[in-house]
Amino acid sequence: YGKNTIKFLRLHKEGKKDCVKEVEVCTHLRLTSAQEYLEGNNSLVIPTDTIKNIVLVLAKKNGISSLEQFAIDICNHFMTTFCQVAYVKTYVQEVPWQRLHEDGVPHIHSFICVPDGIRFCEAEQCRNGPLIVFAGIKDLKLMKTTQSGFEGFYKNEHTTLPERHDRILCGELFCKWSYGECKDFDFNCIWKKIRECILEAFAGPPDCGEYSPSYQKTVNSIQMHVLSRVSQVQVIEVVLNNTFYNIVDMKNLGLTNEKEVLVPVEAPYGSCACTLGRKKFFEA
Question: Per UniProt, where does 5-hydroxyisourate bind (predicted)?
Answer without folding.
Answer: 48-49, 150, 167, 216, 242
